[in-house]
Amino acid sequence: MNLLDGNLTTVALTDIGPENPGNNRGYRFLNDMTTTWKITKPLTSITERNLVYDQLGSSWGGGFAQYFTYSLNDCLTLGLRAEIWRDENNFYVAQFGGNNDFIHIERGDPTASDPSTYFGGKTTCFEVTWGVTLKPPVPKPLTALLVRPEVRYDRALTDNFSPFDQHTDKDQWTLALDIILQF
User: pTM for the complete prediction?
Assistant: First the structure.
C-alpha cells in the first residue's frame, strides 16, 4: 500500500505451515509488517513488527524494530536501529556450543546436540545498533561498493537470563564491518 505520494509504504506478510522435519502437523504462524516512511528527502523511518506462534512448542514470540537512516550526501548515510524481542515460552532464544548444533536440529538429524550447549530462556532482549554506510566514488565495475561499519549493544532485560560471556553477562558489545560489492 502506497500513501503520501509514495512516501509511506506498508507491507504485511504471513507465513503459515509446518517448519519441523518429519512433522506435518505442527504449524508455525509467522507474521511481519514493515512500514517505510520517507519523512524528508534525507531522513527515512522503517518500523517493523513481527509475531510468531509455533504449535510444536505452544510458543509465542514477537518483536518490534525501529530503523532511522539519514543521508548526509550521495556517499555517506548514518543509521540507527533498535529492537525489542520477547520469547514468551522459552522456545526461540537459544545458544549452541557447537557450530553445527543448530543445523542438526533444523535438519532433524538423529545426531543430538549436547544438552549443555543449549541455553534458552523466557526473556525479553533489547539491542541498538549505530552505523554508517559509505559509498566511495570508485570506477566501474565497483560502483556498487558499500562499506558499513557498525557498533551494536545487546542487553537481556529479564532478571534470570544472562546469555553472553558463558552465561554470566546481561550485556554484549559487538563491532562489525560489512563490505558489499554488487555486480
Answer: 0.80
The answer to whether 145 and 136 are in contact (CB under 8 A) is yes
Spatial CB neighbours of 39, under 8 Å, sequence gap ≥ 6: 7, 45
For residue 135, report the phi and psi dihedrals to the nearest 5 degrees: -115, 85
> How far is residue 27 from each of residues 30, 60, 62, 106, measured CA to CA in Å?
10, 12, 16, 15
Sheet hosting strand 59-71, strand order edge to edge? 2-3, 8-20, 23-38, 43-54, 59-71, 76-87, 123-134, 145-156, 171-181
Q: Where are the domains of the chain?
A: 2-181
Q: How far apart are CA 109 and CA 118, in angstroms?
A: 16
Q: How confident is the model over 36-67, as pLDDT tens digits?
A: 999 999 999 999 999 999 887 788 999 999 99
AA identity, residue 7: N
Indicate the fold that domain 2-181 takes in CATH: Porin (2.40.160)
Which residues 6+ apart lie within 8 Å of 151 measured at CB? 129, 130, 131, 173, 174, 175, 176
pLDDT tens, position by position, for the chain (183 residues)? 667 888 999 999 999 998 777 778 888 899 999 999 999 999 999 999 999 998 877 889 999 999 999 999 989 999 999 999 998 887 777 666 677 777 777 777 766 565 555 555 678 889 999 999 998 887 776 667 899 999 999 998 887 766 666 666 788 899 999 998 876
